[in-house]
Amino acid sequence: MKRPEPLPSRLKLEKFSLGVGDRFEHQARAQLRACLLAARQGVEIVPVWNKSNREHVTIGSEPAGTRAAADAAVEALGWTAPYFVDADHVRLETVERFIPHSDFFTIDVADWIGKPAEAQAVEAFVKRHPELSGRLSIPGIERPLNTSRGQVEQLARQYLQAVQEAGKIYRQIVQAKGEDNFITEVSMDETDSPQTPPELLLILAALADEGVPLQTIAPKFTGRFNKGVDYVGDVGKFEEEFSQDLAVLRHAVQTYGLPTMLKLSVHSGSDKFSIYPAMGRAVMRTGAGLHLKTAGTTWLEELIGLAEAGGSGLALAKEIYAGALEQVEELCAPYAAVIDIHLAALPSIQTVNGWSSDEFVSALRHDPRNPRFNPNFRQLLHVGYKVAAKMGQRYLEALEECEEVIARNVTENLYERHIRPLFLNAAPTHQ
């Protein structure tokens, strides 16, 4: 088939980018310092401040606040490289509030996967893409893909509705902002099963048909990507899937005219220390880019900083845990697919109230070598930011009072535990 003209995308996301979620919009400077440290090592990592509609609703914040915090940090630290503000996990009914303030949109259509597409649309897609049926060799994938026409039809029925929804959301953003003024990501990771190479290729072909110039895509991978803790699964299998997905992206760019900078986005990617070497090897070997979303890890570093500060900061951290434990079912329900908390392994409120600063920090900080580290405690507090949000100004004042120790933890966590092992090791320019 003749290679189509590339889809428009004048605003470009650089090779390496880091989603830096900030629930309470107080750590933008500390986050940016981690990117500055990487820049001094010769590796440019573009910060993308992301915050979802659910987080704004929970906290009572507005997208304008995320933009203001990012802009202020960039000005204060003299950052001259690109940066973005991500409307994270937007849908058709939530995208509008983000449009004036965001230049990066993560379009989430996971809920549409599996909703049967119209028979006419499926038939038209299959006719338009005969290359998806039969034997297909893709450089970087050891065995050729063998997909029958019937299987292509089945996959089209499963995914076309989701892709069409992505197209609707994309066009709504274009109508308001113009097609050259934002980065597009498509998220399909919050589903039950990982996408195989034939599925991912079909999705990309369909997105090209819809005219969506996505620069990153977040597929579902094998294993558990639980919030705030390490990857649970077969690391070897993950590396194989990750490498195959990179190969599919390269093929789709060449075949369907998708943007040349198209790269994988790893959601809930923070603290997945065991797969960082696998991702780093794949990126280094292929020269591919990567977008890593670190989501709520900054919020946890705020808690660690409060506890480390001692005194009223430690008391407040303990109060937040007590509130989270009392509301455990309510807090965990929206995140059921991305947490695994064993209630019996959670310490009692009385026990935590008796902890020293070091004991609280040791239980919360993600250091598996520390025998006091408790992943159940960490996951509960990860989803427990609603408790802090209800404290309102009292929590924000505590952040300001303990700013120095919190900022140190935020910067050190992003740089030492995420940027250094993944991005610096994956960058050929880094010595």
Fraction in helix: 40-55%
SS strand fraction: 5-15%
**N- to C-terminal separation?**
42 Å
Overall tally of domains: 2
Shape: globular
Cross-sheet strand order for the largest sheet: 1-2-3-4-7-8-9-10
Mean of all residue-level pLDDT scores: 95
Remind me, CATH topology of the largest domain? TIM Barrel
The H-level CATH homologous superfamily of the largest domain, spelled out, is: Aldolase class I
Sheet with the most strands? Answer: 8 strands, parallel, barrel
Protein architecture, described:
This protein has 431 residues and is α/β, with parallel strands linked by helices. The protein folds into two domains: 16-296 and 412-426, TIM Barrel (Alpha-Beta Barrel), CATH 3.20.20; 298-410, no CATH class. It has helices spanning 28-40, 53-59, 63-77, 119-128, 149-177, 197-209, 235-256, 276-286, 297-309, 311-326, 328-332, 349-353, 357-364, 375-382, 385-391, 393-401, 403-426; strands spanning 16-19, 46-52, 84-90, 104-108, 134-136, 145-147, 183-187, 216-218, 263-266, 290-293. Helix 7 (235-256) packs parallel to helix 8. The mean pLDDT is 95.
